[in-house]
Amino acid sequence: MNDRHSIAVSAISAVSFGKFGEKGCIVFVRKKTLYFFPRKQYNKHGGRVSACRADAHGCAHGIREEFMNYLRLCEAYPAPQFAREKFLLLDGEWEISLNGGAWRSICVPFCPESAESGVGYTDFIFDCKYRKRFTVPDYLRGERLVLRFGAVDRRAEVYVNGAFVGSHAGGYTPFGAEISAAVKEGENLLEVRVHDDVRENFPSGKQSARRESFGCFYTRVTGIWQSVWLEATPAQYVRFLRIVPNAAACSVEIDAGVAGKGEAEIEIFYGENSVAKFKGEIESRKKITLSLSEKHLWELGCGRLYAVRARFGGDEAYTYFGLRDVRYEGKKFLLNGKSVFQRLALDQGYYPNGIYTAGDTEFEGDIRRALALGFNGVRLHQKVFDPKYLFLADKLGFMVWGEFPGWGVHYGDLSALGAFIDEWREAVERDFNCPSVVTWCPLNETWRDLDDPTIVRDVRFVDAVYEFTKILDPSRPCVDVSGGLHGHKTDVADFHCYGDLADVKRRMETAERGEPDFYCMYQPGEGISYNGEPLNLSEFGGVSFGGSKAEGGDCIDAQQAWGYDAVQDEKAFIDRYTDMVKYLLGRKELSGFCYTQLYDVEQEQNGLFTYARRAKFSEESMRRIREANMSPAAIEEE
Q1: What are phi and psi of 103, to 5 degrees?
Q2: DSSP for residue 257
Q3: DSSP β-bridge partners for residue 265
Q4: Cα 624 from Cα 638, distance rounded (Å)
Q5: 147, 136 in Cβ contact below 8 A?
Q6: Separation CA 242–CA 286 (nearest Å)
Q7: CB contact set of 579 (below 8 Å; sequence gap of 6+)
Q8: pLDDT tens-digit profile of 437-460?
Q9: Alpha helix segments (H runs only) across 408-478
Q10: Residue 150 near residue 79 (C-beta atoms within 8 A)
Q11: How far apart are CA 280 and CA 263, in angstroms?
């Protein structure tokens, strides 16, 4: 594209809706034509746009039905899993005050600790304030106006023109507030007050509770780290659409929530074809089963997606789904009734310049790097990822485990359970329609309290979270705690092992006899033991190429480049990797593995790529990794 001119197309196709910096684009529609403008050049409705300012009134709106491609609308929207046509993106130049200090410029949605934010302050930020001035564009006037945040870490209070409009607790999930009564003609002032202390008893994932990064804990993330936008709805509107596919029956069950009572229309499309339609009255909520006239399965490497449009009370909302079934049968993981070995890599969702927030191409780059090495999915580790990552995984036919950043919580303290479950519910509901999410994983390594190792987790915490997850979504498997300590129920008995091949062989042999002895799978004295569940080695590897080995528990305090083991020779590293993977794929009792890790993160340098996503190995070595990963698995045999 010549960035000195706009491009007009007659249908929405190959949209790349850049959010940040010079590479970002504004996308909008006029007279059935979709236009792209480089941000730096876009000037509309009197709003000038700089490389780090996105308050021009360009958005995907006014698109007429006869050429609407609903999936492309989802792609343009900040939260693709539940999109609307009318919105105004507020990302770009804001002001921030850290710990009561002077106001300075910041580029939202990058957190102030990141280089991309323009601030780059990595010391503790317990409290900060944001402010931004905005004007409501004509196409959002006269309706119910909602301000939405993708994620703000951790507790946020929101004010418009000095009036309190809403608050939210939880650093990883979306929230919104109706601001119709608070806005005025002309310029408005938006303020967000944030409190965030990772030392408190709340989920914080891998964020360091020390001033510096250490071990497997990294740079903190404070405040806004996902997009902010305005959208409009009528007084009666669509609240949610949750879709459970049934691939065998070629049908879907839709749980539709609305505000009000009235006539609703829900239509499902595949490509340009309407394949199912409901029309009838809904009051508050209704479950609807629809048969699909066309069957297109969501499969590995083929993310075939159906688009869904819901109309109610003058509102239109859009989502999508993939027609696929996931379940376990015996020890096998089945995708659409076919045994699939989960060849996963660990992805922690950290980016050198944005920390939690990726640039325009980084999500797709990470997925394609994993695919190029023969992985068919990733375990999204200790973070609720940006919904745009999941949209790409959905489109590419790429499996993920949806994991919650539960570290930071004291699992021996049931008083933390309420806040944990509330935010976990928001995460599950946000990503419910994503076909790429094949397993829920609310907890990870609930062994002993990180601050006081004499305190063991309360098993009631684990049991309650598992049961709640299955109530929220009985259609997916749930690992109660990845790596243990497992509770009374789990759909998968997974375990972590960073030993060498001899150690893994010994432990796998005991597991195949029904007596797994992997580290901290179960807590002695609780009467909980292996009960024949499917087995998954959900963490192994962790070998640093060129770094140092963390002996014993030294990884907890390491500040220099480290791995659970270290190899200095490339051939030795690749031989070790391929021997281990081929052995694991030969186990008839093993349903999957997850290699630690896809790329380095700060001082934890045991990835297959560097933190900057540069390959560590030669093309020949990468080919050997791919061939090993793609070798046939014993459990996939008929």
Answers
A1: -70, 145
A2: E
A3: 279, 311
A4: 26
A5: no
A6: 11
A7: 501
A8: 999 999 999 988 888 888 889 999
A9: 417-430, 459-472
A10: yes
A11: 5
